[in-house]
Amino acid sequence: xxxxYPGSGTVSSLSxxxxxxxxxxxxxSNNFDPTSGGRLVVHGGAANFCQRFCGLKLWIxxxxxxxxxxxxxxxxxxxxxxxxxxxxHLSSSPKRTSSLEEQVxxxxxxxxxxxxxxxxxxxxxxxxxxxxxxxxGAGGPSLCIAVIGATGELARRKIFPALFALYYSGFLPExxxxxxxxxxxxTDEDLRSTIASTLTCRVDHQENCGxxxxxxxxxxxxxxxxxxxxxxxxxxxxxxxQIEKLLITDPATAYLPQGKSEAxxxxxxxxxxxxxxxxxxxxxxxxxxxxxxxRIIIEKPFGFNALSSHRLTQSLLSKFxxxxxxxxxxxxxRNLIExxxxxxxxxxxxxxxxxxxxxxxxxVILSEDxxxxxxxxxxxxxIIRDIVHSHILQTIALLAMEPPISLxxxxxxxxxxxxxxxxxxxxxxxxxxxQYKASTKDKVDIYxxxxxxxxxxxxxxxDNARWDGVPFLVKTGIGLIQHRVEIxxxxxxxxxxxxxxxxxxxxxxxxxxLILRDVPDEAILIRVNNKIPGLGLHLDSPELNLLYKDxxxxxxxxxxxHLLLDAFDGDNHLFMRSDEVAAAWNVLSPVLQEIDKNxxxxxxxxxxxxxxxGAYYLWAKHGVPWAED
Length: 629
Ligand SMILES: NC(=O)C1=CN([C@@H]2O[C@H](COP(=O)(O)OP(=O)(O)OC[C@H]3O[C@@H](n4cnc5c(N)ncnc54)[C@H](OP(=O)(O)O)[C@@H]3O)[C@@H](O)[C@H]2O)C=CC1
Ligand SMILES: O=C1O[C@H](COP(=O)(O)O)[C@@H](O)[C@H](O)[C@H]1O
What we know:
Helices cover 30% and strands 19% of the residues. The chain has 16 helices and 24 strands.
């Protein structure tokens, strides 16, 4: 059986006449048969695929005969975000274009507890497409999530799978609508088909997986924004309003006292930097709801440098309140990052040592081998904008901040920004940049014509009372020998150590070390000096090892899931506030300016190697021994 798959040739057209490369919206690789003349061929392995997508409309119509879906109620109580928050309601009233009235036709019925209606769509919705929204677990405010840039790589690879994982695990309410928006001329089924190719169920609860996927996809709609985002966002708004009416399954929510949400919306802006201001501004004016809160999620990098970032921030703040803006860096959704503050503030053994008095250096290491890297996105931005500005500086801020007065997002952000503002502007002489050597077989030759750094190592200093003189050594790069993500905190040597004669190695190397490792194999390790069993007095420095895979038998959620859930919940502590963004650019500006002036050329290094040798000298200059690769 086959189904036509739009955009499966080499080029296709946007609905407004632009041309685009289908590279950004490929057919699911295991289903696309190039010999089939641009048609999507369903192979045996995809047993559910056909039922789910090829005849989706037929199937949904058929399933209208089923009076109740066999589905367990979602644990909506776990979905913390349903609490109402005044502070991210509309910052300025959106200019409404005339909202299209919901059209219920063809004898469609709307029953309490089970909605099934036929809706004529103002956009791409096929006529007579029907929806089913079970009442189980619904009843609170509805939630609409729009992914702007739905055909892009990030949406396909990360955002939709994360949304499904949350839905599957019961963290999204049943009265949810998911909207994919781009400028391509696609249908709901096209979008669903692409999304479906990336969905997986968690290994530990496969139950009802197919049903859950079907339910998730049946709540997913595509909007062709067309040539202008202003009109596009009006269309999105109209469709959302239609769906929101259907999502209200509880009569108690039909009228709500002032200040209570009836319908909440999240807009995930997964679009190129160049499009961000226009998209944000058009959606602010045309697609916000006045019946609940509106939040926008914005992808890194947050500007290209201090100036462009400032302009972006000004533009966003002219349309949204700070509280509505969630700047996402998914690497901050890793367990390791959240655990930084848990370790510090819920244990007595670390915090008293947490200063220059006991700590001699901190190392933040994020190295990727080539396989881990998304080359297309990276090109043009480079490692400083991609990794250092948000991920590395946020990690340092969380690690170095003073105890916040509570776990509230603003309290934590207030402390983070103080650290960021205390970091000394980076001296270009304390930085080593690298670029891996191009190879014709790899995508990396895109870098040969530019000075885009793919490797960065530097010594940063926080000029405050707690961290005076402590070097924070950063090492990050791609195309390196190993994928490694860890934070190493090295302590001073023991003054007048009685056992110095019994240490098998340089006493400066035999210091205590706390290692917080994310990749490979998440673990917390503490290096201690210890007597080797047996006669005589010999010491070595083994690690006390809390290896997660041995200790916890749990599936670790993807970091996008963690952060999306935080955004739904209104918890913004892992998202950068405008003042944090500006402070971080301030630290990096001197180096970025030197790069722009072509005053620093990156040192070339071998693909799959250890990075530029200059890095070893830099670390030695700051008295920091290398952690082994
Ligand atoms: N890919 C990754 O690993 C990462 C990406 N990011 C960031 O995420 C964002 C998206 O990245 P990625 O998915 O890779 O990019 P892609 O180029 O693959 O996708 C961009 C998406 O935006 C849409 N789009 C482009 N221009 C406009 C416009 N003017 N108005 C509305 N929609 C538009 C495109 O669709 P169409 O052309 O049909 O409109 C497409 O759906 C970028 O900001 C990037 O910096 C951040 C971290 C990692
Ligand atoms: O944000 C980014 O992350 C990816 C790595 O993410 P992962 O969760 O898949 O490990 C990185 O390759 C990319 O450069 C960066 O922008």
